[in-house]
Design goal:
The structure is a homodimer of 309-residue chains. By secondary structure, the first copy, chain A, is an alpha/beta fold. Chain A has a domain at 12-146 and 294-303: 2-keto-3-deoxy-galactonokinase, substrate binding domain (Nucleotidyltransferase, domain 5, 2-Layer Sandwich), CATH 3.30.420.300. Chain A is built from ten helices and 15 strands. Chain A has helices at 48-57, 92-97, 130-140, 176-186, 199-215, 219-222, 225-232, 237-259, 272-282, 294-303, and strands at residues 12-17, 21-28, 31-39, 67-71, 86-87, 90-91, 100-104, 107-111, 115-118, 124-127, 148-153, 158-164, 167-174, 265-270, 288-293. In chain A, the strands form three sheets. The first copy, chain A, has a six-stranded mixed beta sheet, with helices on both faces. In chain A, strands 6-13-12-11-14-15 form a six-stranded mixed beta sheet, with helices on both faces. In chain A, a hairpin with a 3-residue loop joins strand 1 and strand 2. In chain A, helix 3 packs across helix 10 (294-303). The longest helix of chain A is centred in the C-terminal third of the chain and has 23 residues, at 237-259. The N and C termini of chain A lie close together (10 Å). The relative contact order of chain A is 0.13. At the A-B interface, strand 10, strand 13, helix 4, helix 6 and helix 7 of A face strand 10, strand 13, helix 5, helix 7 and helix 8 of B.
């Protein structure tokens, strides 16, 4: 491990390029200076190189970056260049060695590997992007790098990972975020009531959804209540949206914390608004919670990819 | 038209008009003679009257029907004419009295009421169409009309109803069928593997999904395995589709039979192919199963709407 310093006054482009969006940062002296958002790797109508050149063009007055480092679905089979999965248990250096390396117009590009695990019983699981945030969190928050820790990353596909002495030993994916979007945008559950948006009603619904998840673990048997309550109890669509969010997040947390019964605390990494909802849901579990910003963790994780170059 | 002949040899149009399709039967002497399918009440681009006139036009050489009876979402607020919900407990005569009555070009039309219930704890639930099948089943299968029975109606929104001495006392909706369609058509779970269809692989996946549901009640925490197994274990999309079906049906049956722990048998009503899957899933529960065809039950239930005219 060669604790490399930035020996020149250049800048780097660090990005989290997932299925639904690109978040690209201009990093200088190890700190993010500017951000540029772009389309997700799952919905490109042009080559990834073109998108990246366009994103970088806005920073052209800073010259070219001396490195580009990317994490997320950009490294998947259907992304830009495939970076194979590294099998768990995996520590930061083993993971960094799995990165794919190429160049874009002469600029070196590193694309992070994903992680795979096989759980007891034989079920397979994969992640791409979250491992970068986890390894970044271990750098940013030193106590996480020793001993055993439970780390939760809420999102489209929420991940609950176990970390032991700096290595990710295993993880489990919950389909929570994608499920919520499907129910909100594509299901009959949200087509029964008053569509006037109300943050208060959504918040009340969220609390009731959490309570229902704690009473009843059957998601299939409780989610229709979102519709029935609009038809029979005068609930609004805002309430129903909050109810479904609470039901799903509550269900995820019930299942994840039952499975990790030895844990006494959990570290949450993600979008601050989503993390707030998980903090509220975790309040009833007795676990102590420490929350970290997802972008900061991703940038700290991408720094690690330089040391294996 | 030969009025005298049709006075003696009249026929009726009985239909199940749900969100996604119309199934209209030409009934003569109490038996279905012909069937005509049409668009669901949830996706009409023209008036329900027009659709119905078009459907009946194919049988014009039989003269006009002397009655039209319809059940399903056609009686909902967003259907043709609203037939309010009848509250549980409800027997056949109380339900029949709640039907809406109108006419179409002089032909009397009866639209079945739905049922509503409030479960212990306060959760609301509703059904439209399934109650017609249940009351029909009680007519077709005499033992169901006495004592307590558990009746399951697999479908877009599966219903599990309790019947006591001929009355529906309560029920619960499982979101299974709509969830399956969302995952199949709209999710990222089915976009990872070989899309070549194989009935054998789908069947094998179904069995593995059932087994996973029995091991692990967390749907959110197991469904991503459908994708990971395509990426990591060489599973095909056909296998994943079967796995998701098994996972969802298994999950529904686990939750529904735990809640109805006093039951020793269950009556299944529905589409014969779907009923076969539920029979397979129920084989592990120790419950004895009796299965009835959904169309036959619906027609028998619609007969009941005449007696209250």
């Amino acid at each position: 491990m060669n604790g490399e310093l930035f020996d020149i006054m250049g800048w780097q482009a660090f990005g989290d390029w997932g299925t639904s969006r690109l978040r690209l940062f201009r990093v200088e002296d190890g700190r993010p200076r500017e951000r540029c958002d772009g389309p997700g790797i799952g919905a490109l109508d042009t080559a990834p190189e073109t998108i990246l050149r366009e994103a970088l063009a806005g920073w052209r007055n800073q010259g070219d970056p001396d490195a580009i480092r990317l994490t997320g679905m950009v490294g998947s089979r259907n992304g830009w260049v495939e970076a194979p999965y590294v099998e768990c248990p995996a520590d930061a250096s083993g993971w960094a060695r799995g990165a794919a390396r190429l160049d874009l117009d002469g600029i070196p590009v590193v694309i992070a590997a994903g992680l795979a695990c096989t759980r007891p019983g034989g079920a397979h699981d994969v992640m791409r992007g979250e491992e970068t945030q986890i390894f970044g969190a271990l750098r940013l928050h030193a106590p996480l790098a020793d001993g055993r820790h439970l780390i939760a990353l809420p999102g489209t596909h929420s991940k609950w990972a176990e970390v032991e002495n700096g290595a990710i030993t295993g993880f489990r994916t919950f389909f929570t975020g994608e499920m919520f979007a499907l129910l909100r945008d594509r299901s009959t559950l949200m087509r029964a009531g008053d569509m006037h948006a109300s943050a208060d009603e959504e918040e009340a619904g969220f609390g009731e959804g959490l309570a229902r998840a704690a009473q009843d673990p059957s998601l299939l048997g409780t989610m229709f209540e979102a519709r029935a309550a609009q038809l029979r109890a005068g609930r609004t669509a805002s309430w129903a949206l909050g109810f479904l969010s609470g039901l799903l997040i509550g269900n995820e947390i019930q299942a994840a914390t039952i499975a990790a019964s030895a844990a006494t605390r959990v570290c949450l990494i993600g979008d601050p608004r989503l993390v707030l909802r998980y903090e509220r849901a975790l309040a009833g579990t007795g676990l102590s919670v420490n929350s970290l910003d997802g972008d900061n963790c991703a940038l700290a994780g991408l720094e690690l990819l330089g040391s294996a170059a």
